[in-house]
Write a structure and sequence with these properties.
The chain is an alpha/beta fold. It contains five helices and six strands, in the order E-E-E-H-E-H-E-H-E-H-H.
Length: 158
């Protein structure tokens, strides 16, 4: 089985790839610079593959406040990339509590209202997120459980 490859890591952001999958793991509130770095890496990853074949999982482990304007602008550019080029996407807000549930609810509503061209779901666990993207864009010989295990072993625990 293929392994996750770290393409970027700092104290608040870890980006890794696995075959057609690009994962962003947010460990702290995003700075504008981090979001722009992630956008550059994700854009290069998507542009190196046939249109609509990549999968994206954004895993947010902490939410404290509203992103600054620089971060929001980069996030809007990222959504445009997703609109035109990604086969399926999942946003995972895995932190616990009322605020996180509220963020998941708002994001789910935005997905319904904006109707992205690619399937996009909002979840509370990475297992659900990986399951969703693989359900919409299967990868031969791969199941969500094996990707989740590899993610935990090769990304989260490092």
């Amino acid at each position: 089985m293929e392994r996750f490859h770290t393409v970027y890591r700092d104290e608040g952001l870890h980006c890794a790839t696995w075959g057609p999958l690009f994962v962003q793991r947010w460990l702290a509130d995003a700075s504008g610079e981090q979001v722009e770095t992630m956008l550059e890496l994700h854009t290069a990853f998507v542009e190196a593959r046939p249109l609509g074949t990549t999968l994206s999982v954004s895993h947010v482990e902490v939410t404290h406040g509203r992103p600054d304007e620089r971060s929001r602008a980069a996030m809007r550019r990222h959504m445009k990339l997703a609109e035109r080029a990604i086969g399926a996407a999942a946003t995972v807000i895995s932190c616990e509590g009322f605020a996180s549930a509220m963020v998941r609810s708002v994001l789910s509503g935005l997905v319904l209202v904006t109707r992205p061209k690619c399937p996009h779901g909002v979840f509370s666990t990475t297992a659900e997120g990986f399951g969703f993207v693989l359900e919409h864009r299967p990868v031969a010989g791969v199941d969500a459980r094996s990707i989740e295990e590899a993610y935990r072993r090769e990304v989260v625990q490092r």
